[in-house]
Amino acid sequence: MVMNKKKVLFFEAYPFFSGAQRVSLNLCKVLKQKNYHITLLLADDSKNEISKNFSPYVDEIIILKTNNRLLSYGNFGQWFKLSVIIETLFTGLFPFYKSCINIFAKGKFDYFYFCDPRGAVMLKIPLLFFRGKKIMYLQSKNRMNPILSKLLFFFFIDHVVSPSIDVQNSLPSSSKKLVINYGIDFSQYDKVDGNVVKEELQILLPENHKNRTKFLYAGLIKPQKGLHHLIFAFNHLKNTLEETNLPIIIILGKPSNNAEINFKNELVEFADKHGLSQYIYWMDWRSNVLEWMKNVDYFIFPTIDKEKSTFSGYDGTIESTEGSPVVLIESSVSGLFSVASRVTGVTETISEEVNGITYDPNKSESLYEALKYITIQKPKFLGFPDKEKFSLESFSSKFLELFDYKLNPILSRVESFETDPSSFSTIRQY
């Protein structure tokens, strides 16, 4: 019966299913296997992505009616500008806090799990009134000052979990912080069949491009991901190498708003102006990224660190939000050599000249030099030395310890996450 189970509340503030949400989902699957009762509390399910993905692995989903002031995504610090702080507090956070307190009081939860600074701000006040263990997952590098970080993260939270040592080191000193790397189900990569993409490339590429070195980018179409640096560096490469030695770039990604559309258009115009368009293939987003990885020579990860932006919709300073890029783990498990910007968490996945090379994103020529090296030297993938630290077993055992589950060393093998979702959760509005 439910009353005999430990009760866990998961909180998701975003409507998008991305890296942090994959971690939450994997954790839900682990706890579900161990007979925990799981409630998923959503601040925004407007995309229907979160409830759809989580429903088979949680017992109930509660969707809160959240004020639009709290549904602006990007820099949540904008909530507290002088011009909007009254609205944020009185029409946004205070009503939200009241709803959470009512839900927590009725639920009598043993554990609370949430992600990132936004989750901490949205739950901070309600959680002060409840005894359950509070666990936070900070996916990206902390950029707040130490005093504010201590107040927000360590004053009322029992454990602050990070996906990499880089993220952990960005936090103030505390015995409450620890690293738990992403848990990857390696078995799924053995089942990848790249034949469909292989046939697509045969049709897509002209004869003089089929045997060229192929670089793959897969991700968001926004300046923070550094696509402009990739195309600028490629232009430099074009002016250096003979035409027959130039590689091609395949881009998997689709703009999701006007700012991203404008960003892509500016890059397309630059490529047209400089004679690069024939070497760059914009493919929109594809869900079969692993199949594409089977059919290219190198993966490119050109994310920025921090810089001034002049792109429309991205005025001012922009910066990376990486913590431990999952796509680099996936490329390495797929046996694909990567070229990666040396941002948070990257050097904990990439071993130089083994499964990739890294470059300094703050040096203007470094990406060009990396592309030139790869194109001329054509280094080979030699293995993935850090593979085991991303295993399901490591991920599951460390998280289960936080949730006070007593592991049997004889029966500690973790089952595949491909469990049969035979029962779906109850969904209710609040």
Write the layout of secondary structure elements.
Elements: E1 7-12, H1 19-33, E2 37-42, H2 49-54, E3 60-63, H3 85-107, E4 111-115, H4 116-127, E5 133-137, H5 146-154, E6 159-162, H6 165-169, E7 177-179, H7 187-190, H8 195-204, E8 214-218, H9 227-238, E9 248-252, H10 258-273, E10 280-282, H11 289-293, E11 298-301, E12 306-309, E13 316-319, H12 326-333, E14 337-341, E15 356-359, H13 366-377, H14 392-402, E16 426-429
Parallel strand pairs: 1-2, 1-4, 2-3, 3-16, 4-5, 5-6, 6-7, 8-9, 8-11, 9-10, 11-14, 14-15
Antiparallel strand pairs: 12-13
Helix pairs in contact: 3-4, 9-13
How would you portray this structure in words?
With 430 residues, the protein is an alpha/beta fold. The protein has two domains: 221 residues, Glycogen Phosphorylase B (Rossmann fold, 3-Layer(aba) Sandwich), CATH 3.40.50.2000; 191 residues, Glycogen Phosphorylase B (Rossmann fold). The protein is 34% helix and 17% strand. It is built from 14 helices and 16 strands. The chain has an eight-stranded parallel beta sheet with strand order 7-6-5-4-1-2-3-16, sandwiched between helices. Strands 10-9-8-11-14-15 form a six-stranded parallel beta sheet, sandwiched between helices. Helix 4 links the parallel strand 4 and strand 5. Helix 3 crosses helix 4 and helix 9 crosses helix 13.
